[in-house]
Amino acid sequence: MEKKHFENGVRFLAALSVLTAVVVPLSVFYITSNIRACLLCLAGCLILCLSAYFLYRLEDAYITGIVAELSRLVDVLMELEEKEVFPNNEDTVLSKLQSKVIKLTRILKYKNETAKEEQENIKALISDISHQLKTPISNLKMYSGFLEEEGLSEEKRREYTKIICLSVGRLNFLTENMIKISRLESGLIQLNMQRQSLNETVLKAVKDIYPKARQKNTEIIYQENGQIIVKHDRNWTAEAVCNLLDNAVKYAAEGSKVILSVKDSGLFAEVMVEDENNPIPEEEQSKIFTRFYRGKNSRAEEGIGVGLYLSREIVLKQGGYMKLKTSEKGNAFSVVLRR
């Protein structure tokens, strides 16, 4: 109802009340010719009019108070605070409205926190990528300039060309892995989840890493206790296992062994990669699955620190998890998938 119509209605009722207060006593006097009855009737009408006016003012004050409280509730929502304006123990429309506003506040707070976290992740990603690109790009600039020098010996030319090729390879490796990570994190990749042999998936990863292991004279020992059928994405799971094998072979001493096993653990299936490398220090174990993190023992080898992070993301997307166990003999990384 518009304010103008409401005010006209109030005026009409007020005029009707005054008219009633005048007409009724006059009618009583006209009928009874009793002045006392007329005065009593007039007094009663006036009392009714005053009572109606008093109730109107009370209702107006109540509505004004409710509007003020609703305004406070809106302020609470705008400030994302979980304050109670109306009593929570009353089963009223206002308390129900307040409950929904508090729920909305919690949702908005969660959305804000998620947005801030994503923003921080983007900043960290840009910073990490800038850091990773800095060295190979600097090498490309520097050694490309060296190649332009006159009188450069053939030996130096080959040396500089090799460094340039290594830098290009690192840039290519970084780009490919960042594309994989971004596609996984943004949900652009639709996993092809099928019930299929986990053994065959693991052997696919072995084929990809075998040439590197042979070059380092590292033996990969494969163990299984029968065919294990698990719902998973073959290509991406093979990628995750390949990253684990690549790390094991990369940091392995020449002539060492890497044990790759597939086993049934009841409700789960487990793929374990055991190496004979230096145990990862306890203080680093919570960080190794972080993007671009490289431990103290890994800095002697070429790498950018995305393999374990990528493996974990792949496994998490499939409803599984990864774990690490260390001992004096080495490290054991496991990919665990629900059967």
Report on the architecture of this protein:
A hairpin with a 2-residue loop joins β4 (257-265) and β5. The chain has helices at residues 3-32, 35-78, 93-147, 154-186, 198-215, 234-250, 307-317; strands spanning 194-197, 219-224, 229-232, 257-265, 268-274, 321-327, 330-338. It has three domains: 3-78, no CATH class; 128-186, Orthogonal Bundle (Helix Hairpins), CATH 1.10.287; 194-338, Heat Shock Protein 90 (2-Layer Sandwich). It is α+β, with helices and mostly antiparallel strands. The protein has a five-stranded mixed sheet with strand order 2-4-5-7-6, with helices on one face. Strands 1-3 form a two-stranded antiparallel sheet. The two termini are 63 Å apart.
- Work out the radius of gyration: 39 Å
The computed structural class is alpha+beta
Tell me about the biggest sheet?
5 strands, mixed
- Which residue ranges are poorly predicted, with pLDDT under 50 across at least 5 consecutive positions? none
Helix content bin: 55-70%
Assign the CATH architecture of the largest domain: 2-Layer Sandwich
Biggest sheet strand line-up: 2-4-5-7-6
SS element count, helices: 7
How confident overall, as mean pLDDT? 79
The CATH class designation of the largest domain is: Alpha Beta
The overall number of domains is 3
Would you identify the CATH H-level superfamily of the largest domain? Histidine kinase-like ATPase, C-terminal domain
